[in-house]
Design goal:
two-stranded antiparallel ribbon, mainly alpha, 144 residues, homodimer, 58% helix, DNA-binding, Arc Repressor Mutant, subunit A
Chain lengths: 144, 144
DNA sequence: TCAGTCGTAACAAAGATGGTTACTTCAAAC
DNA sequence: GTTTGAAGTAACCATCTTTGTTACGACTGA
């Protein structure tokens, strides 16, 4: 597995809902999205549930239920999605606290924390540059 | 666990060896490093083994055995370490291939691949800006 | 009342990471 | 040649994350 594909699936789902709505449909079902992404509807519902908590999508229940976007894809960036579904940092510090009696053990965590913070900052900046509309247009631009 | 701490432990080990050598010692043992990082010597040997494969450190066996740097910490960046120990990409594509019959399913992977490649590129650039000497100096600068 | 879809719990499978033990191999020192 | 200390490495386990799957309750429009 190595890396995780949650950002990929979330972007897939949002682009799918956006295109579907643009074609005149009101709501998209987790079943439809799962079929396109080749995964299980529950996986989609779980992921969209997190996006809903972040205010990116809404869901309706009952007959004719499904998912809708809360705002245009132009106003949604990959950073919004990332923040909604990725809780932890890119790099972790020590699992167990290093030896405070050792010079290295004492200073290594603050030292690395600064470096890691800088990297996370640039990643976030990069993610914020791409909107889901950019993603959708790039998808549509791929030749068949 | 969430994220992984391999880069952290590797940087810790390299800084430790570097400082130890600077203090006049020839070789550092996995036992000593593990004690400072509060982990198991085998974990250190495994990690240093990968760094050795990348040419960053050397090991000697027999009595008085241990680990040495192959070059100065100034000429070693976090990117060198990252490349030595992190095989996979930051973000993964779909685990199972999406539906090629669907417009989104067909174009989503090339579209996201471009975005992800750009992000990896900036992360690598950031990592290459910090040398292990920078890390060691930052460690030594932390007040007791 | 019915039917369709979300909401969610529960569980399993798989992979990554890290910890531990145990044994082999090596090379310097004696 | 024997001893000794440390690397090399296999094996196993525990934990965590992610993903897939089944099952069933909750909701709501027709």
């Amino acid at each position: 597995m190595s890396a995780n594909s949650r950002l990929t699936i979330a972007a897939h789902a949002l682009a799918w809902i956006g295109l579907y709505q643009r074609q005149g449909h009101e709501v998209a079902t987790s079943e439809q999205i799962a079929s396109s992404a080749n995964t299980n509807p529950v996986v989609i519902r779980r992921l969209l549930g997190e996006l809903r908590a972040a205010g990116l999508v809404e869901s309706r229940r009952g007959v004719g239920a499904g998912w809708t976007l809360t705002r245009d894809l132009k106003k949604m960036t990959l950073l919004d999605v990332y923040d909604a579904i990725e809780p932890g940092p890119l790099f972790a510090l020590h699992r167990a606290s290093p030896d405070e009696g050792c010079v290295i053990g004492h200073g290594i965590q603050p030292a690395l924390q600064d470096v890691y913070a800088g990297i996370e900052c640039t990643v976030r900046t990069e993610l914020s540059k791409t909107t889901l509309e950019d993603v959708l247009q790039a998808v549509l631009a791929v030749p068949r």
